[in-house]
Specification:
Elements (H helix, E strand, L loop, with lengths): L2 H7 L1 E5 L2 E3 L2 E9 L3 E8 L6 E6 L1 E3 L2 E3 L9 E6 L2 E6 L5 E5 L2
Antiparallel strand pairs: 1-3, 1-10, 2-3, 3-4, 4-5, 6-7, 7-8, 8-9, 9-10
Length: 98
Amino acid sequence: MDENLNDFLVGKWKSEPLETEMGVLTIEIAFRKDTFRVENYFGESETPVVIKGAWKLAGSALTAESWNKGNPIKVSTEDDKLVLQTGDDPPVTLSRAK
C-alpha cells in the first residue's frame, strides 16, 4: 500500500458540478482511515444518494465492496487534487472540501 497516497486520501473532497446522463452531479466524499462516505447530489436535490463502507488501497487502485460494484477505482493526484477514474468513464477531479 502506498502510505503517502493513503494518507493523502483521508479527509473531505468535493467535485465541481459534472454533466452526466442523469443530469448535473456533484460528488462529496469523506475518507477516514478505513471507511468512506460518498454523497452524490443530482441536479438541485438537497438529498444525496449515499454510498458508504470500508475501503482499501493497493498501489493506485481503491476498492470498496459497496462502491463501483467492488471493482477497482484508479486513484491519482494532480496539484493537490484527487483524481478518480472508474473503468472507461472520464476521470473525476475533486478538491479538498472546507
